[in-house]
Design the sequence.
């Protein structure tokens, strides 16, 4: 049995250990243990693959394991809540910003504060494709608009949650297109229905559509990104197609907790930018429907604010107000 005299020493050691674990690190000492990336999407998604590619490259650079934890569901709330609750500078959120930028206009109350998500580094821009069934014989947004105006209320589009759906709804309203919205929870099911012609329009990450595009059953007629994709040089952007309202870049990157020291964020951002610049990493991420666009904390934050401003303008046009 442990003697009474040993108890204070043991208690002191435990307190010291807990203090060490809780104390914020500086750029030289971070990381001190395993780093976790929480991802709000399931395994196999473009964002999940991107997170795992980066984790594999960053682990040897940081000298600690980097693990990816998938927390899909709940319109992103499951992952965001897990991240915020951790309150740990070794637990980071790896996410597309479209998961949360429309939240204030879609929910009356949020289980987190926007200030809890501190931008660290942008990694990529997800390619967001506008797809139609190949059987529809539509080759452009202009042709789609003409068909929709000739048959008001006859066409349908797959609706989901998030910024992409929000902007797409704004595009339809602003263009005067009467296309019925069919709600979906499962993006893969939406793409399958698109391929079968059960719906006629869907805007989603290219990674989700790619199998049906490669099978020749879905045709991509535009992307919402502000620049063309090198992997699809003949596909115009929404702006180029004459529909400036259909403009949204799918920003993907890392977030840290409130209070994370700027020097640690800068250290992580520099490492992410270095790793993301590797030719092999660029090739692997490009194959998942990503435009590799690494950026530091300030640049990432500015891009997020631009996306938020776009969403706010769409919300205004749709007559929606922020819940908080």
Sequence:
């Amino acid at each position: 049995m442990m003697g009474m005299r040993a108890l204070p020493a043991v208690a002191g050691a435990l307190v010291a250990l807990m203090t060490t674990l809780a104390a914020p690190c500086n750029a030289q000492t971070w990381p001190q243990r395993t780093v976790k990336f929480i991802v709000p999407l399931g395994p196999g998604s473009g964002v999940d693959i991107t997170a795992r590619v980066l984790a594999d490259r960053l682990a040897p650079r940081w000298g600690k394991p980097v693990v990816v934890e998938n927390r899909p569901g709940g319109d992103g709330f499951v992952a965001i809540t897990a991240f915020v609750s951790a309150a740990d500078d070794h637990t980071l959120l790896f996410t597309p910003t479209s998961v949360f930028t429309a939240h204030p206009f879609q929910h009356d109350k949020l289980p987190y504060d926007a200030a809890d998500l501190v931008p660290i580094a942008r990694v990529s821009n997800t390619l967001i494709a506008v797809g139609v069934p190949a059987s529809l014989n539509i080759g452009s947004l202009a042709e789609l608009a003409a068909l929709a105006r000739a048959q008001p209320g006859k066409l349908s589009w797959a609706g989901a949650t998030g910024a992409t759906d929000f902007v797409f709804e704004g595009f339809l309203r602003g263009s005067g297109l009467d296309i019925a919205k069919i709600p979906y929870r499962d993006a893969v099911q939406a793409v399958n229905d698109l391929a079968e012609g059960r719906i006629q329009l869907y805007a989603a990450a290219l990674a989700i559509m790619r199998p049906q595009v490669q099978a020749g059953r879905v045709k991509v007629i535009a992307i919402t990104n502000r620049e063309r994709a090198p992997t699809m040089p003949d596909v115009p952007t929404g702006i180029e197609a004459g529909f400036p309202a259909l403009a949204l870049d799918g920003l993907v990157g890392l977030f840290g907790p409130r209070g994370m020291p700027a020097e640690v964020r800068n250290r992580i951002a520099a490492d992410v930018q270095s790793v993301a610049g590797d030719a092999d990493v660029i090739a692997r991420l490009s194959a998942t429907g990503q435009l590799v666009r690494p950026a530091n904390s300030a640049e990432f934050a500015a891009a997020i604010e631009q996306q938020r401003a776009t969403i706010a303008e769409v919300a205004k046009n749709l007559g929606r107000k922020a819940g908080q």
